[in-house]
Amino acid sequence: MKRRKNSFRHDSLQNQESIQGILKALTDGVAKGKITFSDEDDSITMKTEGLMNLRLTASQEDNRNRINLRIMWENSGRKAPKKKALSVSSKG
Q1: Which of 20, 27, 34, 72 lies at a 20 to 30 A Cα distance from 85?
Q2: CB 49 within 8 A of CB 72
């Protein structure tokens, strides 16, 4: 089964104000139904709709602090991929 995958990843050092701006852009994008991520190398646009799964984890270890935020959803507007018949046989 083939899957179409588009992905975007960006790593950088940011100050508190720029993190606030990024989080504000995310909340605005969710509210408007469209989020675009981009940098010098790549970009991706996602349409938000319906119910979304949210996973939030926070941890502290020694002097390290970490927050992970994951939001997942499926777009219903996409055409469902055609189901291909699966055949399993034990005949040689």
Answers
A1: 72
A2: no
Query: Cα–Cα distance between 75 and 48 in angstroms, integer?
Result: 7
DSSP string, 2-26: --------------HHHHHHHHHHH
One-letter amino acid for residue 29 of the chain: G
Contacts of 6 (CB under 8 A, 6+ apart): 44
Write down the pLDDT at residue 85.
78
DSSP string, 24-85: HHHHHHHHHTEEEEE-SS-EEEEE--S--EEEEEEEEETTEEEEEEEEE---TTSPPPPPPP
DSSP sequence for 73-90 = ---TTSPPPPPPPP----
